[in-house]
Amino acid sequence: MRNAVPQEIEITKINESKISQVDFENLAFGKVFTDHMFICDYVNGEWQTPKIVPYGPLTLDPSARVFHYGQAVFEGMKAYKDDQGDTFLFRPDENFKRINKSAERLAMPEFPEEYFFDGLNTLLKLDDQWIKSGFGNSLYIRPFVIATQPSVSASEADEYRFMIICSPAQSYYSGDVSVLVAEKFSRSASGGFGYAKAAGNYAGQFYPTKLAKEQGYQQIIWTDSNTHEYVEEAGTMNVFFRINDTLLTAPVSDRILDGITRKSLIALAEKQGYNVEVRPIKVSEVVDAFNNGSLKEIFGAGTAAVVSPVKAFGYKGEHYELEKQENSYASYFKKSLMDIQYNKAEDSFGWRTKV
Amino acid sequence: MRNAVPQEIEITKINESKISQVDFENLAFGKVFTDHMFICDYVNGEWQTPKIVPYGPLTLDPSARVFHYGQAVFEGMKAYKDDQGDTFLFRPDENFKRINKSAERLAMPEFPEEYFFDGLNTLLKLDDQWIKSGFGNSLYIRPFVIATQPSVSASEADEYRFMIICSPAQSYYSGDVSVLVAEKFSRSASGGFGYAKAAGNYAGQFYPTKLAKEQGYQQIIWTDSNTHEYVEEAGTMNVFFRINDTLLTAPVSDRILDGITRKSLIALAEKQGYNVEVRPIKVSEVVDAFNNGSLKEIFGAGTAAVVSPVKAFGYKGEHYELEKQENSYASYFKKSLMDIQYNKAEDSFGWRTKV
Ligand SMILES: Cc1ncc(COP(=O)(O)O)c(C=O)c1O
Ligand SMILES: Cc1ncc(COP(=O)(O)O)c(C=O)c1O
């Protein structure tokens, strides 16, 4: 296989870390970046020598395809530090596989596995002091690939840049969210690329979400674009419903991102002996369950917020407020998952990888 | 209205034009750019002083939102020069309105009309020698807006850059195209943003188009994502069918770009007394018309290729070759439109604007 032999990473270190200027008690999500970044360019049909360099601006031609045709994919993962100072990743092989699945759908070249993991591990070791221990603190990791080729012609590029940038993230509680169920707008089409973590899947959500915010909702739960009768997922989270003691979530499809948190929760639930149903879920079924008192919980699941309880939802002009649950599934899942991520619990699934 | 007062454009001219290095007889589309570009930044809720500067690279933070969430819109228009050396634009008000319609759907700020036209006219005057006369030669103009704000948070940005770059385009005949009718993949969803000229609508087409190319087709005709029974549009063109002497095209919707060439052809056809039907068109109807001999022509319509005749189409494993028509509608439309664009014919619609 071409590119299978890992190359030495060329490393240029910063002269002086900027870490002392960072207030780790007041971190806005995704705004502050660590001292270094990983870069690998694809030119002439090959990934070139990977580099780690000081975090800093990119220089691109205004005609670079990413600006015009959205040829860009990304991943979102986290590094967690335990009280002994060891750092862990959670199922990073899943992120690696997914970025290449996304890349394939966008006609972008596959990134070699060795480069991905060598780059990631080397970068995390170099910027180790940016990963703070403490339950809930983490380093958010953003691998991404952009089409850099200069020329405004609407076809796939011949030149790309793969990068990894990292941003320290704080443990925070943003409060339970209110969500609006989509009735008119859609996130993705059957036969489209909604299952890819592609740039083009996000910008289209901002305007409908802005309108939802004007109605007092923080997020949208997307429904299928054909009928708007079935729930799909939220902006950056898959969605779970608890009806009585059964946990429900929609099956993934070519419209829905196959979330790593989602599949981990399903595994945890099954291990715990919860009844889990992965099947199409009608909005009307959720409303009926609310009305007859069997709808106990709704929550989102994703790397950034882990598990995010929903306190209310809006649909067809009605507003539904959920009752707070004792011993909620959401809090059980959040704690179980974080215990594994922070090396506080046994990892019977083999999800944890030490850096 | 905020920003309504046009500001002086700050102009920095190049020292020496690079035009002498350009081979105008061998131009690949969208690869060579003129000496200058127009830039206007949106910061603190306001469009700042517009600038014209030498064409050159952009410097952006790796966390700029355009790289991650595809918040980017664009336009495609052309400047045409007649034999007297006068330069014309074709319905530029439509491009201006459309870029703001696209921007609204992507939760991006509106760009002021005065800035758009002052910027465009000033830039075209400065780079006038790049616009070559000769029927078919033109200057392709690419206005675009990208989200520049650094921070990987999945919401609309607070900072943007509006730019105009220009690329000389040659008269060329690429041959009639073969197209594949989409059966599985889709371009856009109902309730989505297919009607916007947004970056995210393009990258998703490259992979299906690559597969189509492997089957010997150059482009895809997209169908509706729900049933794949109705034809919609091509990658960068709207599509017309001529059945006997009736001209058919699909109505625009939230999935289809409202093409300026498309609406101009409809107006020309009506003026010419052709029977025009704008209505949903089933693929099966096109196949039936082929089989009974009434399908005379298929062609695409868009700014880049003007009118692009289709010589064959593929659908459900069958290949359909169209017969060449004498006095084709496609060639009539192409000539009529170009005669207006190049100031060779009377402009009864008032479409031409002198720069
Ligand atoms: C659209 C979408 N759905 C779901 C998720 C959750 O996926 P994961 O659990 O892998 O973070 C994400 C990303 O975080 C996403 O962008
Ligand atoms: C998706 C799509 N459809 C149709 C068109 C044709 O539009 P216009 O005639 O305004 O160039 C374009 C752009 O050129 C396009 O990108």
UniProtKB/TrEMBL annotation, chains A, B:
EC number of this enzyme: 2.6.1.42
GO biological process: isoleucine biosynthetic process; L-leucine biosynthetic process; L-valine biosynthetic process
The keyword Transferase belongs to this UniProt entry's keyword annotation: yes
Molecular function terms from GO: L-isoleucine-2-oxoglutarate transaminase activity; L-leucine-2-oxoglutarate transaminase activity; L-valine-2-oxoglutarate transaminase activity
Annotated keywords: Amino-acid biosynthesis, Aminotransferase, Branched-chain amino acid biosynthesis, Pyridoxal phosphate, Transferase
Transmembrane segments annotated in the record for this chain: none
Gene3D superfamilies per record: 3.30.470.10, D-amino Acid Aminotransferase, subunit A, domain 2 (3.20.10.10)
InterPro entries: Aminotrans_IV (IPR001544), Aminotrans_IV_CS (IPR018300), Aminotransferase-like (IPR036038), B_amino_transII (IPR005786), BCAT-like_C (IPR043132), BCAT-like_N (IPR043131), BCAT_family (IPR033939)
Cofactor list: pyridoxal 5'-phosphate
Summary of the function given for this chain in its UniProt record: Acts on leucine, isoleucine and valine.
Record-stated family: Belongs to the class-IV pyridoxal-phosphate-dependent aminotransferase family.
Name of the protein in its database record: Branched-chain-amino-acid aminotransferase
UniProt source species: Aquimarina amphilecti
